[in-house]
Sequence to fold (283 residues):
Amino acid sequence: METRRAREENMAKKTDEELYDVAINMIGSVAKLPIIRVDRETFLRQQFADSEYLDDILKYGPQHVYTVESLRRKADGVIKKSTNQTTLAAFVAGIPGGPAAVAAGGADVAQYFGFAINLAQKIAYLFGEDDLFTDESELNEGAKVRVLAYLGVMFGASGAAMLVGKLAKEVGKNMGKKVAQQALMKTTWYPLVKKVGVLVGKQVVKESVGKAVTKVVPVVGGAISGAITYATFKPMGGRLADVLVRNLNGEFDETGLELRPEFKKANALEDEEVTVHAIEIDD
Fold:
């Protein structure tokens, strides 16, 4: 209990800057593990192996071919499968002496966030996001921020949904390239990045505390670890899929702010009227 109390006090003492660094450093470290990385093309080939439109899917993304609603249903299957795999791994890791018991308290925390990042990639690629990883061994700053946004949504961070909407528009410009930390800090939306990073950092520290507790009783520890993972990963994946659906449906404007459903609907009707009118003139 002393260890747990000490860690909780340590979390309370950390500044926002330190918590943000904890999140970014964790993403950078975990992303180096080959098992965490999801190759976009390989994943999409597996998911749409029987599709006659596979070439278009690989080139433009699944959202170019299929409806957002059908992709959301497919995402449920991906989330369920990943959750079951994660739960099994968490159960084994929760037992002292298990394969992941090296550096107790650290290995399974890395595994927890590693699986979260792994699942986030699969969901993102399903909804047309670009490949996060390059041939380089380390993620560039832009990719780290994208992962941070995904994790923020999964953990329910306020503002994370808007950040995902903003980043989706930035990827095609300069976020896909190497972006220096100084350059990121100069953007108008960096405070939002920082805010989401602080929450993810708190989650990293919180998980470190929780995982230490599951080590107390061998088999029970494994059961608790698996149960907690199952209870959290399914809704986490669902939250990210829902935000990416909203993004594809145009519910975030160019600033990343959320559009009111009524306004979006009225705007869509106006666009339809303009389109019809244009066709009538051409005729």
Remarks:
- Residues 2-282 form one domain.
- Residues 73 and 105 are 35 Å apart (CA to CA).
- Residues 97-105, 212-221, 272-283 have pLDDT under 50 and may be disordered.
